[in-house]
Amino acid sequence: MLELLNQGGLVAWVIVASGLVAVAVFLERVLHLHRARIKSEDFLAGILNNLKRGNVNEAMAICDDTPGPVASIVRTAIVNRAAGLEALRSAIETVGRTEIARMERRLVILATVAQVAPLFGLLGTVVGMIRSLQVMKAQAPLVQAGDVMGGLMQALVTTAAGLAVAVPCYIAFNFLVGKVEKIVIDMERSASDIQAYLTGTNGGGAGEGKAP
Predict the structure, then answer these.
(1) Residue 173's pLDDT band (cuts 50, 70, 90)
(2) Other C-beta atoms lying within 10 Å of the C-beta of residue 189
């Protein structure tokens, strides 16, 4: 493998380096999103039970001890429960946007590598072909196959490396985007339910009446 990469030249090593960065980003984001995903229905049921009993501090403590954006949104709603419907909704939306941005952090790196790696591969292909043509021009009309093989190998190795990095990065990016979307759905559902309970509206069926 190292011999092939050496034949691919500097461009091949650049592609490999970008792939290693993408792997590190993917693993970090997977762990982050795994911690952020909770059983939102069970969590919200526990919060509402405490609010119905008037245990606001206990509900806040549960939110503080629970990781993830759902807990952050519910905590924000409880803190702003007396601020009025519009202020409550605005506070929830602000926190929601912040949490989504936090979950999507560094995903752009994966998308960039998925798009750029094939272009680096194409660059390596062009460089390799130019290298082969220069050899052919210098040794014409008696050109040996072995003399042009180096450039052809560089072209093939960089093309293969670019595709080998780009395809997994594209899959990884879409995998993480899917995880983020699932958490966003939980966030929206929890925000609707806690807002419905705190304002006494029938928006989510999570509770009746207004929290103390």
Answers:
(1) very high
(2) 16
